[in-house]
Automatic annotation (TrEMBL):
<dbReference type="InterPro" id="IPR000847">
    <property type="entry name" value="LysR_HTH_N"/>
</dbReference>
<dbReference type="InterPro" id="IPR036390">
    <property type="entry name" value="WH_DNA-bd_sf"/>
</dbReference>
<dbReference type="InterPro" id="IPR036388">
    <property type="entry name" value="WH-like_DNA-bd_sf"/>
</dbReference>
<keyword id="KW-0238">DNA-binding</keyword>
<dbReference type="Pfam" id="PF00126">
    <property type="entry name" value="HTH_1"/>
</dbReference>
<dbReference type="GO" id="GO:0003677">
    <property type="term" value="F:DNA binding"/>
</dbReference>
<keyword id="KW-0805">Transcription regulation</keyword>
<dbReference type="InterPro" id="IPR005119">
    <property type="entry name" value="LysR_subst-bd"/>
</dbReference>
<dbReference type="GO" id="GO:0003700">
    <property type="term" value="F:DNA-binding transcription factor activity"/>
</dbReference>
<dbReference type="InterPro" id="IPR058163">
    <property type="entry name" value="LysR-type_TF_proteobact-type"/>
</dbReference>
<comment type="similarity">
    <text>Belongs to the LysR transcriptional regulatory family.</text>
</comment>
<dbReference type="Pfam" id="PF03466">
    <property type="entry name" value="LysR_substrate"/>
</dbReference>
<protein>
    <submittedName>
        <fullName>Transcriptional regulator LysR family</fullName>
    </submittedName>
</protein>
<feature type="domain" description="HTH lysR-type">
    <location>
        <begin position="1"/>
        <end position="58"/>
    </location>
</feature>
<keyword id="KW-0804">Transcription</keyword>
Length: 285
């Protein structure tokens, strides 16, 4: 799915006019209409109700809109890491990032970046365990926690929501929990050393995830493996929204307890040593 198609969909949803939305993005009306139809075919649903006089969001379009905005935000955040042009930028950039985020958002945009900067080499340090940036000579890192080290600087790129999800197969076997208290009866997949997080809605809840039960079936120290295990139907897991967007969109995963939000959501931060603040090879990122 092309991000520019998502951008067009969001713009049409805002102005409710395909021609005007396309014009604002530099697209002819016919091209904008064709691109929007292609997106609907990919999703398998009509995102808008069309008539000769007006266009309105369909129910499916209203449901898809927040997903589209979230994935576009993550895409733009990734591009900001490979952002401003510096013609004389050169050297090796040691970039620490989680394997899951790199696979989904960093590696796909590297060809464009490396083509733009032929004198730069990217040295990816992948893993979900945080490296000591100073000790390992890291130039840039993506983190989902606020950095307190006085030798580092941090810039917020995007929110980092967490949601509960499971596969349709698992839910057909075990049932969909109707309230947080029901989680004690379900198989749980959890990230290693993850701190319990409170679930809340308009009506208060004191239930934590993972719940206090003996039904934790799998512990992972890798986000990709946890996502794959969830799709495979092992149990319910808490994932970063950006890491399971595609699976939710394609129906491989279903959100569990959608009326409940995870308390204390984090953010995605770009972190770098203060000493590298003016490095041209890092400025281009």
């Amino acid at each position: 799915m092309e991000t520019e198609s998502l951008r067009l969909f969001i713009k049409v949803a805002e102005v409710l006019n395909i021609s005007a939305a396309g014009k604002s993005l530099g697209l002819a009306p016919a091209i904008a209409s064709s691109r929007l139809s292609k997106l609907e075919n990919q999703i398998g649903a009509d995102l808008f109700h069309r008539s000769t006089r007006k266009i309105t969001l369909s129910t499916q379009g209203e449901q898809f809109l927040p997903y589209a905005r979230e994935i576009l935000k993550q895409h733009d955040a990734a591009l900001s890491v490979v952002g401003k042009e510096q013609d004389d930028a050169s050297g090796t950039i040691r970039f620490a990032v989680s394997s899951t985020f790199a696979q989904l958002y960093i590696v796909p945009v590297l060809p464009e970046f490396l083509d733009r900067y032929p004198n730069i080499t990217i040295d990816l340090k992948l893993g979900d365990k945080e490296l000591n940036i100073i000790e390992h000579g890291i130039d840039l890192a993506l983190r989902n926690s606020v950095i307190k080290d006085s030798g580092l600087r941090a810039r917020k790129l995007a929110d980092d929501r967490r949601i509960l999800c499971a596969s349709p197969d698992y839910l057909s076997r075990k049932g969909m929990p109707g309230e947080p208290l029901s989680l004690v009866n379900h198989d749980i997949i959890m990230f290693k050393d993850a701190k319990p997080r409170k679930l809340h809605s308009n009506s208060d809840s004191s239930v934590m995830f993972p719940p206090d039960s003996n039904k934790i079936r799998l512990i992972c120290d890798d986000g990709t493996s946890m996502r794959i295990a969830t799709v495979a139907g092992i149990g319910i897991s808490m994932n970063a929204y950006w890491s399971v967007f595609h699976e939710l969109e394609t129906g491989k995963l279903v959100r569990v307890l959608p009326d409940y939000e995870v308390e204390d959501n984090t953010s995605i931060w770009l972190v770098y040593p203060k000493a590298n603040a003016l490095s041209q090879k890092c400025v281009c990122l």
